[in-house]
Write a structure and sequence with these properties.
Elements: E1 2-6, H1 15-28, E2 33-37, H2 43-49, E3 58-61, H3 63-66, E4 77-81, H4 88-94, E5 100-105, H5 109-123, H6 126-129, E6 134-142, H7 147-158, E7 163-168, H8 171-179, H9 188-206
Parallel strand pairs: 1-4, 1-5, 2-3, 2-4, 5-6, 6-7
Helix pairs in contact: 1-2
This protein binds adenosine-5'-triphosphate (ATP) and magnesium ion (MG).
Adenosine-5'-triphosphate (ATP) is lined by residues 11-17, 39, 41, 43, 84, 140-141, 167, 169-170, 173-174, 177.
Amino acid sequence: MRHIMVLNAKGGCGKSTLATNIASYFATEGANVALADYDPQRSSLDWIDRRPANRPEIHGVSAYEGGLRHVPRSADIVVSDAPARSHGPELTDLVRHAETIVVPVLPSTIDMQATANFLKELKSVGRIERKQAKIATVANRVRDNTLIWDELDEYLSKTRVPYIAALREAQNYIRAYTRGIGIFELPEYLAWPDWEEWEPLTDWLRTKRSQP
Ligand SMILES: Nc1ncnc2c1ncn2[C@@H]1O[C@H](COP(=O)(O)OP(=O)(O)OP(=O)(O)O)[C@@H](O)[C@H]1O
Ligand SMILES: [Mg+2]
């Protein structure tokens, strides 16, 4: 069973947005997907509740209550949505099963600074030090021709953590969440720019490079 976690201690950077879209991507590819929500805010589980019955099923797991105990044995992939403010022993416990950790980062000085602090802490967690999980960053909600996007791009390129993709700010993410689907399930004429931006991330997630 493949385990991908979306994680950043910084709130509001797009963890639930990425987690639901990663789950939707693998489900549309025919995988048996479980989406484990570690956040009592339940954004990922609420998204599953909105999911139309004619879409590939994604199994919701209330991981904030019982961890991964209720993940079905038949699942090929578990995508975990982490809560904000995960630090210390709680962080160590949270990443216990993760093989791949995707860290979304917003173009904002506060977010870049918080992420720098977080990556430093994450790298010191035993599981990461021992290379039992791979980490990568993803720029999220980027807007072309803004100075802060240039700064974020430069910052993420310089960190020693692989920087895999940059996703634009788009209403498609809001639209898709509202309908309980991912951007991969929106019509091509609307979502093709987002599909293109996701390609490096989905490619990375499908290959050995993202696995320990
Ligand atoms: N690429 C994007 N384009 C437009 N809106 C986005 C994008 N990514 C995220 N959002 C919006 O930003 C807000 C925060 O995103 P999200 O809830 O996914 O972040 P989070 O990291 O899970 O937050 P929390 O720390 O509260 O769990 C949401 O309203 C979401 O719809
Ligand atoms: Mg969230």
